[in-house]
């Protein structure tokens, strides 16, 4: 089930782009805003649960995840807008799922040894996320500059849905 969470959440955050594309920077702004809103709602929901449980130390972790939601969406969105390909969505989905799996395993009653191993795997997913954001960020800067001077719009981007 954990692997489907990333696919579903990352796909839903790209819906504003697919439902009503506006072009270029507006699509970026709209989709990243949707991602930030989604992450904020999730953070508030989890922080409320954490407060009830009295595990206050987890609140900063949930706030960090708010920004991870934006990073994952940025990866998927940039590759989609710049290259017109879905590999960014798949990468973002896998990274998101690696983060979610430990919590889902814990709720499922997994043994402590496996839970710790899953947590290490989840933490290990942060480095590829940072590297991917850096790499696609470079592409985003080039794309936005080309768009600003009017020399680059992929064919799939200008065709009607």
Description of the structure:
This protein is 83% helix and 0% strand. The protein has helices spanning 2-13, 15-19, 24-53, 59-83, 87-107, 112-124, 126-148, 155-158. Helix 1 (2-13) crosses helix 5, helix 3 runs antiparallel to helix 4 (59-83) and helix 4 (59-83) crosses helix 7 (126-148). It starts with a helix and ends with a helix.
The sequence of SSEs as H and E is HHHHHHHH
Major pleated sheet: none
Average pLDDT value? Answer: 75
Question: Strand tally, please?
Answer: 0
Question: What is the radius of gyration computed over CA atoms, rounded to a whole number of angstroms?
Answer: 17 Å
Number of helices: 8
Structural class: mainly alpha
Low-confidence sequence ranges: 155-160
* Overall geometric form: elongated
Q: State the distance separating the first and last CA atoms.
A: 31 Å
What's a concise summary of this model?
The longest helix is centred in the N-terminal third of the chain and has 30 residues. This protein is about 85% helix and about 0% strand.
Blueprint of the fold:
Layout: H1 2-13, H2 15-19, H3 24-53, H4 59-83, H5 87-107, H6 112-124, H7 126-148, H8 155-158
Helix pairs in contact: 1-5, 3-4, 4-5, 4-7, 5-6
Key structural traits:
161 residues, 0% strand, mainly alpha, 8 helices
